[in-house]
Specification:
The protein has no helices and eleven strands. With 114 residues, it is mostly beta strands.
């Protein structure tokens, strides 16, 4: 399974971006898909995950600002990011857990200027 993330860029604080992650195979609702991020000099950290359309989970740092969603028919995962802060600057990675295997996308850079 290949994951292709896109949508990153440079945005001012308070702005919004929408990340997309396209999978090379169908994403069934039972598969857990997620976004992680890695800021310069820091460990990769969890941002959000979703298994079905009813149980999204978020890191405390992005709760109420970010929204994860998925379109299984298009095999695409999204991350809507609003009210962006400079501390959201990172490379964002999508991840899919399919049965016992974990697949990562290549990452897309989000830079938030103050």
């Amino acid at each position: 399974v290949q994951l292709q993330a896109c949508g990153g860029g440079l945005v001012q604080a308070g702005g919004s971006l929408r990340l997309s992650c396209a999978a090379s195979r169908r994403l069934y609702s039972s598969y857990i898909v997620a976004w992680f991020r890695q800021a310069p000099g820091k460990e990769r950290e969890f941002v959000a995950s979703i298994r079905s359309g009813r149980d999204p989970r978020y890191a405390d740092s992005v709760q109420d600002r970010f929204t994860i969603s998925r379109d299984n028919a298009k095999s695409t995962l999204y991350l809507q990011m609003n009210s962006l802060k400079p501390e959201d600057t990172a490379v964002y990675y999508c991840k899919a857990r399919i049965e016992s295997a974990h697949y990562w996308g290549q990452g897309t850079l989000v830079t938030v200027s103050s």
